[in-house]
Amino acid sequence: MGDFNSTVDQDGAIIPSERRITMKELENHRSVDTGVWIGIAENVYDISSFLSQHPGGDAILLDAAGTDATEDFFDLHSDEAEKLLPAYHIGRLSSSTEPSNLISPEPQEADAPFLQRDAWKKVVLHEKQRLSHDTRLFTLKWQHDSQEFGLPVGKHIFLRLKNPISGEQIVRPYTPIAARCESGEVDLVVKIYNDKDAKKCGKMTTTIDLASMGSLVELKGPIGNFEYTGRGNCTISGRECYTKRFIMISAGSGITPMIQILRAIASDDSDFTECLLLSGNRCEEDILCKDQLDSLERENKRFRVVYTLSKPCDGWTGCRGRLGQELLEAEVGSPTPGSAEMVLLCGPPAMEATVTELLSKNGWKDRDIVRF
């Protein structure tokens, strides 16, 4: 943290700093070298020392550095995260009208990638397809049919949509399963969380499900600390890695980054990376994109897909139970020395924590496990 941090009174309570920080100053602190500052609710925080502690990795924080991240923070974090902020407070964001170099740019030319990390880009909700009782495939379309989307394999995007009833701007991260540059379209698979108890409803999922065709949606990205660059090569928070085999473990909608990576490998005849996918779900109809996964497995000898259901129907012949110790020991086991294997993990926090603990007991190191 910097020299202007908040102080602590005699009772141990944090006294916020009254230093005024301009938008220009904030924008100049976007890296480890300059200091990592973010703006939240008209306050500025120096989170340089928190990068290594962030549960979602440091890449997302570095992406937000030097910007007003108010919407992203409150839409993606719990009250517990908000309680951590005072310790990193260094001042208040000045209301100065000094020009910012991070304002939304003019419409892009077709030869530039559509996505921009620092600006929200408008797309149109072009099509909605029902995949199951609670899952939809949304197709979003941008202006230029031939424009590159600009999303590296393994990265995700932020989606922002205004609730037409409450007027609330909702932001959530999603991993597209496909982008078609030739038609200017990107596909999102979204599980719709409806519940009689409004507190259990998914704000974004219910809002986008109710949106009419032609509605405007905003995207920003790419976001994330993992990128697959092909033929077993990838980067994790800037660190270059190589793997001969991915062990993909997902639950529910956590399947989407796995599909993205599987498709990339399958599309390259010179990519011989092997993939084992363990997909956990409640029942068979909850398995997202099962037809696509089965097709990828049939057409690629180096792919293997294993489904397990916690509440299967009587006719289910696959694995039963959660993604637990028995399945992990049978299908994953311990890492083989020199085998160049990597685990990709995506699902609810409780599932990720449980699987990580079980893998650790079997000898897997944290550096070999990527959490989306």
From TrEMBL:
Its cofactor is FAD. Residues 118-229 form the FAD-binding FR-type domain. It is found in: Mitochondrion outer membrane. It is a single-pass membrane protein. InterPro entries: CBR-like (IPR001834), Cbr1-like_FAD-bd_dom (IPR008333), Cyt_B5-like_heme/steroid-bd (IPR001199), Cyt_B5-like_heme/steroid_sf (IPR036400), FAD-bd_FR_type (IPR017927), Flavoprot_Pyr_Nucl_cyt_Rdtase (IPR001709), FNR_nucleotide-bd (IPR039261), OxRdtase_FAD/NAD-bd (IPR001433). FAD binds at residues 172-174, 189, 191, 203-204, 256. It comes from the Eukaryota. Pfam families: Cyt-b5 (PF00173), FAD_binding_6 (PF00970), NAD_binding_1 (PF00175). SUPFAM superfamilies: Cytochrome b5-like heme/steroid binding domain, Ferredoxin reductase-like, C-terminal NADP-linked domain, Riboflavin synthase domain-like. Residues 18-94 form the Cytochrome b5 heme-binding domain. Keywords: FAD, Flavoprotein, Heme, Iron, Membrane, Metal-binding, NAD, Oxidoreductase. GO terms for cellular component: endoplasmic reticulum; mitochondrial outer membrane. Its main location: mitochondrion. Belongs to the flavoprotein pyridine nucleotide cytochrome reductase family. This is Cytochrome-b5 reductase. It comes from Gibberella moniliformis (strain M3125 / FGSC 7600).
